C-alpha cells in the first residue's frame, strides 16, 4: 500500500510501516475531519503536447497538509480512505472541485485545458458513480468533453463486465477516459480493444531511466506503437529531463507530464505559469 509513499513528499513514513501502524495514528479520523473542514486541496500538473509544446491539460492531484505530520502523500492516505469507506466522499469532493476550477478558469478566459481526475477502483465501482458524475457535470456546468477520468488497469479488470458498461455510459456523456500507470498492471492487451479508452499514460517507472535504459526504451516504444495503432493518445508521466522529453518526442509520443516542465501547482501558480508561457 504505502509502497510509493514519501518518494516525492515530505513525509515520515517508511516502506515497512503497515496499515495497522498507520491506523494507529488516527489518520482516518484526521482525514474525515480534513474533508469536513475543507482542508483538502487540489494541485494541478500541466500536460504538454509534445509537438506544439503547448499546455493542453492538467491532472488534478490531491493534497493534504496534516496538522501535525505535515504534507502527506496521497499514495499513503488514499488507500486508508479506501479501506475506511471515505473514498467516495473524498472522490466526489475532488471531482466537483476540479470541475468548478475548470469552469472558473474558462470564465477567466484561460485557454481550454482538459481536466484529468484520478478515480479510485472503489469509487468507480460504487453504485452511484455514474449518477454522481452526471450530477456534478450539471451542477458545475463543466463541459464533459473537457473532463478526463484516469482509471487504472486493475480498477477496470476487477469487475470487467460492469466496468465496461459503466465506461460506455461515461463515454456517452462525452467524457474522456485514460488508463493511468499503464504497463504496471497484470491485464492482457486484449482489454485495450474492448474498453473505450482515449489515452494511455505510460507509467513513470518506464520513463525514469530513459534514454539510457534500452529495455525501458523498448517498452516505451511498444506502448507508443500500440497506442497509435488503436488511435489512443499516449502521454508519458514522470518526465524529469530534457533528454527524456526529446526522446519521447522523437519516438512519436503525443504528450508529456512531469517535473521537467512543472510540478503539480496550486491553482494560482498554475495560472501564472500559463500566463508566462502564452507570451512566446
Ligand atoms: P498518479 O495518478 O500516477 O499521479 C502521478 C504522480 O506522479 C503524482 O504523485 C505526481 O506528483 C507525481 N509526478 C508527476 N511528475 C513527476 C516526475 O517528474 N517525477 C516524479 N518522481 N513524480 C512525478 P502524487 O501527487 O503524490 O500522487 C500519487 C498517486 O496518488 C497518484 O498517482 C494517484 O494514484 C493517487 N492520487 C492523487 N490524487 C488522487 C485523487 O484525487 N484521487 C485518487 N483516487 N487518487 C489520487
Ligand atoms: Mg493519475
Ligand atoms: Mg500515473
Ligand atoms: Mg499511480
From TrEMBL:
Residues covered by the EAL domain: 24-278
Record keywords, A-Z: Membrane, Transmembrane, Transmembrane helix
MF terms in GO: cyclic-guanylate-specific phosphodiesterase activity
Keyword Protein biosynthesis on entry: no
GO biological process, one term: cellular response to nitric oxide
Name of the protein: PAS domain S-box-containing protein/diguanylate cyclase (GGDEF) domain-containing protein
Native species: Malonomonas rubra DSM 5091
Higher taxonomy: Bacteria, Pseudomonadati, Thermodesulfobacteriota, Desulfuromonadia, Desulfuromonadales
Parent sequence residues shown: 659 to 938 of 938
Amino acid at each position: 500500500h504505502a509502497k510509493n509513499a514519501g518518494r516525492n513528499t515530505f513525509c515520515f513514513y517508511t516502506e515497512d510501516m503497515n496499515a495497522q501502524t498507520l491506523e494507529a495514528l488516527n489518520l482516518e479520523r484526521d482525514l474525515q475531519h480534513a474533508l469536513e473542514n475543507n482542508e483538502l486541496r487540489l494541485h494541478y500538473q500541466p500536460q504538454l503536447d509534445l509537438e506544439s509544446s503547448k499546455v493542453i491539460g492538467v491532472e488534478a492531484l490531491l493534497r493534504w497538509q496534516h496538522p501535525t505530520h505535515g504534507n502527506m502523500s496521497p499514495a499513503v492516505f488514499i488507500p486508508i480512505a479506501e479501506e475506511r469507506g471515505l473514498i467516495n466522499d473524498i472522490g466526489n469532493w475532488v471531482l466537483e472541485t476540479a470541475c468548478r476550477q475548470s469552469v472558473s478558469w474558462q470564465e477567466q478566459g484561460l485557454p481550454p485545458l482538459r481536466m484529468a481526475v484520478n478515480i479510485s477502483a472503489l469509487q468507480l465501482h460504487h453504485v452511484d458513480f455514474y449518477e454522481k458524475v452526471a450530477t456534478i457535470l450539471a451542477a458545475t456546468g463543466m463541459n464533459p468533453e473537457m473532463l478526463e477520468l484516469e482509471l487504472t488497469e486493475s480498477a477496470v479488470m476487477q469487475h470487467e463486465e460492469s466496468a465496461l458498461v459503466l465506461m460506455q455510459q461515461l463515454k456517452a456523456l462525452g467524457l474522456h477516459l485514460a488508463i493511468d500507470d499503464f504497463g504496471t498492471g497484470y491485464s492482457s492487451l486484449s482489454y485495450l480493444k474492448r474498453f473505450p479508452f482515449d489515452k494511455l499514460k505510460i507509467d513513470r517507472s518506464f520513463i525514469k531511466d530513459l534514454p539510457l535504459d534500452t529495455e525501458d526504451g523498448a517498452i516505451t516504444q511498444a506502448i507508443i506503437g500500440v497506442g497509435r495503432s488503436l488511435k489512443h493518445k499516449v502521454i508519458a508521466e514522470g518526465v524529469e529531463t530534457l533528454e527524456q522529453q526529446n526522446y519521447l518526442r522523437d519516438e512519436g509520443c503525443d504528450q508529456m507530464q512531469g517535473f521537467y516542465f512543472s510540478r503539480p501547482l496550486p491553482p494560482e501558480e498554475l495560472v501564472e505559469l500559463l500566463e508566462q508561457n502564452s507570451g512566446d
